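Q&A FORM
Asked by: J.P.
Topic: structure of DUF5640 domain-containing protein

PROVIDED:
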Amino acid sequence: MKKARIILFGMLFGLIAISANAQASDFFVGKWAILVTGIPNGDATSYFTFERVDGKITGFTKTEGAAAIKFSRVEEDGDEVTAYFTSASGYDVYLYIEKIDENHVEGSMMDMFDCTGERVVEDKKE
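REPLIED BY: S.T.
REPLY: Here is the structure written out as tokens.
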């Protein structure tokens, strides 16, 4: 009987953990304005859009005046995301960001350039 209680407790705890993880996993979904500082041509803001498709996070990046670039791969680990893509100039690039609060992230691009970001909240027209 004691083993049955332990097993049931373990299953209940596991379900709670899975449920909490599922709710938190959509933090990055949406549009983010990411400021990259210290790059050779000067600081630049790009827009990163993350979407969840078939349970996996994907998306694209877009800089004003340029075409959108799809992510080739996205790695998600709790409150951290790394997005891989090929830049407009043909370089393989990755952006690492982690959650600071509900609307802010920070991280780095290529582990060389600091990044800060803010969630873009678009007005909903009715």
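FOLLOW-UP: Residues 14 and 85 are 35 Å apart (CA to CA).
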